[in-house]
Amino acid sequence: MGEEGALVGGAFFIGSRYLVPLINHYEKAEDIDFDKLPQEFVLKMNHGSGWNLIVLDKNKINRNSVKHQLEKWMKLNYYDIGREWQYKSIKPLILCEEFLFNPDHTPIRDYKVFCFNGKAQFVQIDLDRFTNHRRQFYDRDWKCQLQEEAVKASDLQ
Questions:
Q1: pLDDT tens digit string along 81-100?
Q2: Domain ranges, ordered by start, for the chain
Q3: DSSP letter at 35?
């Protein structure tokens, strides 16, 4: 990771306090040493969307299958799939992050901030991602905006 305020990978890095804690990153799946990872973690790709593996108990996963899936994703370019230009020239990496959850062991709310010309314009909030997934969008004044049709709108107000 970089210093606060440094330009990292083409994005302005504002500080680690705003990010999910990174455990490690890997250039190849074979470099992952599961024995050194915590019991719960998330493996995700930096160069695509939806390429995540949530591990709630590392003793219950097939490590070879996990590595095989990660290697498959490493060979793909998300630009070719979804034509999202921001993914076109990214060097693929596997990120291992802490799995964040509430005290009752339910996943935390997931906030995504959409910035345009360096200013936050919209916030996407995902709740109950693994059970009763709901998603809602809000503007800068927290006025409800678009809801994604594939996911039930949240009852947040």
A1: 777 777 788 889 999 999 99
A2: 1-100, 103-157
A3: G
